[in-house]
UniProtKB/TrEMBL annotation:
Family: Belongs to the class-I pyridoxal-phosphate-dependent aminotransferase family.
Residue ranges of every copy of the Aminotransferase class I/classII large domain listed in the record: 86-377
Protein species of origin: Streptomyces gardneri
Listed name of the protein: Aminotransferase class I/classII large domain-containing protein
Pfam families found in the cross-reference section: Aminotran_1_2
Gene Ontology BP term (one): amino acid metabolic process
Transmembrane segments: none
InterPro entries: Aminotransferase_I/II_large (IPR004839), AspAT/PAT-like (IPR050596), PyrdxlP-dep_Trfase (IPR015424), PyrdxlP-dep_Trfase_major (IPR015421), PyrdxlP-dep_Trfase_small (IPR015422)
The entry's keywords: Aminotransferase, Pyridoxal phosphate, Transferase
Amino acid sequence: MTAHAGTTLSSQELLDLTQHEIQALLTEFNLADAHTHQRQSAAQHKIVARLPELWYEAEEGLQATYEQRFIEAFFRLHRQPTALAKNKTLLSYAASISTMVVAMYLKQQRMAVTLVEPCFDNLHDVLSNMGVPLYPVEESALHDPDRIYAELKRRVRTDALFLVDPNNPTGFSLMHSGRKGFEEVVRFCKDHNKLLIIDFCFASFTLYDPELARFDVYELLEESGVRYLAIEDTGKTWPVQDAKAAMLTASDDIKEEVYNLHTSVLLNVSPFVLNMLTQYVENSEADDLASIRDVLDINRVAVKEALQGTILEYQEPIAKTSVAWARIQHPDLTATELQRELREVGVYILPGRFFYWSQPGRGEPFVRMALAREPEMFAGAMKRLREVLDRHER
Ligand SMILES: *Cc1c(COP(=O)(O)O)cnc(C)c1O
């Protein structure tokens, strides 16, 4: 493997994070995409060994059985009894497909949307490519639960508000204040008749964090009477080579329209994939998500150590997700330049500008590094990262 394997498109400007991530897949130390590239744990190996059995089982059974088992296991793990009891969650192949359905709904209703910034640029791109007008709201508007209501009232001018919790890349979560932050967002949306859209794709990472324990969010949503759409995902949690499934749940007042859009996109997710994912979810229930968290914890320690005393400052997140967010402390080194230097030595990280989708310049001090990687490879990447950082004086 050469350090320059990823330079095939180097003369062409990369237009979004996914194009960076595609280049990173060719690179020795790919810390770009937040997909799961770690190996299987011992218990997960046993699931892989049973794949033929899971295949034939899914061939024999009813689609509805595998859907129900998967949804039950997922919401049980996530401690969301209300979502489970409501029994109205729609499955799709990927979170981006669920987001596309959300975008189709917004377009159909001629709604504009206010989307949190920074966030993963794919959300912005899907919405914008579907022709939905978008406006940013700074994540900082959500930081103080006592100010959320007033901040949103002042800033949100559209009919819909789109949040990501925990946020990708910053790891910010409304749950840091218990129920209060979330309650305030819901109260604002209810009082002002806003559609609340929440992307929970990173939620599994906070499940066993005592500070952030996820309460029954769907109970709050349902009982408040707020109009909502909630996206859940498996793709960033389990190492299943992107054989993932995502879920979309809508409040009763709009669920029929959303269902009609959903069925225009897909019939069903593969019962084999659902059967397999159910095993992974149940395994995580049995080990309190240890196989997921352990890898991330090891790599988080490694990145903090590697950055110690350098110009790149680790940003302590509220939610410990599968990405690390760091800030450059140097008067004239930009993330774009640092990303280029690292790429030359075979380490691919993402520059922050794409996460600041309305004002890319504000992302220039930041970079994001993915943690869902084999720790041995990650340690190698950290060694090279450190060598490059040591070229720059603090
Ligand atoms: C990755 C990601 C998505 C999209 O997931 P896909 O599996 O790529 O469709 C959506 N939201 C968040 C927060 C993500 O991190």
